[in-house]
Each structure stands twice: as structure tokens, then as C-alpha cells.
């Protein structure tokens, strides 16, 4: 019974995902003050992650972490705070050159960096969160592909 | 195995995480990967599964970035009402 419940909660609810994302897109579209193309694509990207996290609900650590980041980003820009000190460079991923002196991180540590909110998790919880995160990421990518496909037709 | 290394450093007194549980989770993760259908049903080593998972997540992040850029381009150039109508039509069908 536990497995069935976990499967049910794991499968992303596609209409909910679509609803949140499309609502965000409509808002973004209305704001004509966003002149720069880079700004708008960044906003769309954050809207995508935020709608993904909203659809996933607060029960997952990754969804809470993503929403925190999006809200932090939004509030800091609203109040004009300098965005130099970001909690993590999640929305602006830089290519890091590996320091050869440091020990190479284990695969689990690399995964912890990729999955939001997974920094201090033990391995079993990390694997569960990763599986959930991948399912929602995939559903979000499919949704965005559908939207792009229908708009460009 | 990587699980042994991590359980050594995390001696959680609350719940003992067995290797079997870890293997179970790793195989579930393997099933989610895009190459799941191509490879045989035999379990891959955990390190390989984690590596593939990391690569898959990175590629999904990259896809989201690319799709956001494309959407941003498209929304700038297309007419709003027809775009909205097209989206809703495609999602309802």
C-alpha cells in the first residue's frame, strides 16, 4: 500500500503543471516593461521552475528549496537589493573549473549539488528526491516543448 | 560500493538504511533514465547509475534553459491572443 501511495504522489499532475506555467506566461506576457530579451528568458525559466515546484507541493524538499530561491530572487529584485550574494548560483549556472588539488567529489555529492535542497540528505532520501525531481523536470520539459510547438505553428 | 562509504560517515541512530533499500532505490532511479529500455534488465553499478542520473539532470536543466529562450523569442514576436488560443487548443486535445 505504501508503494502505491508513493507512486501516486510521484506522478506529476500534468494539468496542474500546465495551469501554473501558463498563468505565469500570461503574466510575463502582459508586462511589456520587460524590454530585454535576456531578462524575459530568465523570468520564463524561473517561472518554469516555480510552477514545477508549486505543482509538486510543499512535501518535497526540492520543491521547497526551489520556491525559496524563486521568492528570494523576486523579492531581492523588487526591493532593489544587489543580487551579488545569491544563496546559490542555481539560475545562473557557471562552468566551474575543477581544482586539481581538491579531492574529486563522490557521485552522491555531485548529485546533491544538482538536486535543490538535497545538500544535507542521507543517500536513501537523496535517491528518492532525485527520482521525484527527474519526473517533474521531465514533465515540465514536455510541457514547454508542447507550448513552443503550438505557439510556433 | 558508494553506499557503504556514505553510511560509514553517517551513523544515523534513528534508522538503519540497509543496502537492500539503497539497491532498490538505485534500480528505481535506473528505470527512470532514458536508456532504461535499451540496456538489459541487469542492474548497473550504483556509481554508473548516479553518473547517468547527474548527466540526465544536467541535460534536462539545459533543455529548460533552451526552451525558455525560445519561448521568450516566440512570445515577443507572436500575437498574444492567437498564441494563447493555440496553446489552449493543443492542451485540450
From TrEMBL, chain B:
Residues 1-20 are annotated as: Disordered. InterPro entries: bHLH_dom, HLH_DNA-bd_sf, PRE. Residues 6-60 form the BHLH domain. Belongs to the bHLH protein family. This is Transcription factor ILI6-like. Pfam families: bHLH_ILI. Keywords: Growth regulation, Transcription, Transcription regulation. It comes from Elaeis guineensis var. tenera (Oil palm). PROSITE patterns: BHLH (PS50888). GO terms for molecular function: protein dimerization activity. One of its GO terms (biological process) is regulation of growth. The lineage of its organism: Eukaryota, Viridiplantae, Streptophyta, Embryophyta, Tracheophyta.
Amino acid at each position: 500500500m505504501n508503494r502505491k501511495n508513493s507512486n501516486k504522489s510521484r506522478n506529476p499532475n500534468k494539468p496542474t503543471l500546465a495551469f501554473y506555467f501558463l498563468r505565469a506566461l500570461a503574466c510575463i506576457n502582459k508586462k511589456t516593461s520587460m524590454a530585454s530579451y535576456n531578462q524575459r528568458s530568465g523570468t520564463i525559466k524561473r517561472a518554469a521552475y516555480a510552477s514545477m515546484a508549486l505543482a509538486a507541493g510543499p512535501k518535497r524538499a526540492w520543491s521547497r528549496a526551489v520556491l525559496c530561491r524563486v521568492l528570494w530572487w523576486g523579492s531581492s529584485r523588487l526591493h532593489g537589493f544587489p543580487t551579488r550574494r545569491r544563496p546559490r548560483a542555481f539560475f545562473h549556472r557557471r562552468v566551474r573549473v575543477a581544482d586539481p588539488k581538491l579531492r574529486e567529489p563522490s557521485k552522491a555529492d555531485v548529485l546533491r549539488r544538482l538536486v535543490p535542497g538535497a545538500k544535507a540528505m542521507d543517500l536513501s532520501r537523496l535517491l528518492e528526491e532525485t527520482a521525484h525531481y527527474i519526473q517533474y523536470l521531465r514533465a515540465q520539459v514536455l510541457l514547454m516543448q508542447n507550448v513552443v510547438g503550438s505557439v510556433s505553428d | 560500493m558508494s553506499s557503504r562509504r556514505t553510511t560509514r560517515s553517517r551513523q544515523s541512530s534513528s534508522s538503519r538504511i540497509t543496502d537492500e533499500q539503497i539497491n532498490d532505490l538505485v534500480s528505481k532511479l535506473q528505470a527512470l533514465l532514458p536508456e532504461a529500455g535499451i540496456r538489459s534488465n541487469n542492474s548497473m553499478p550504483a556509481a554508473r547509475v548516479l553518473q547517468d542520473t547527474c548527466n540526465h539532470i544536467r541535460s534536462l536543466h539545459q533543455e529548460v534553459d533552451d526552451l525558455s529562450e525560445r519561448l521568450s523569442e516566440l512570445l515577443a514576436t507572436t500575437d498574444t491572443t492567437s498564441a494563447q488560443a493555440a496553446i489552449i487548443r493543443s492542451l485540450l486535445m
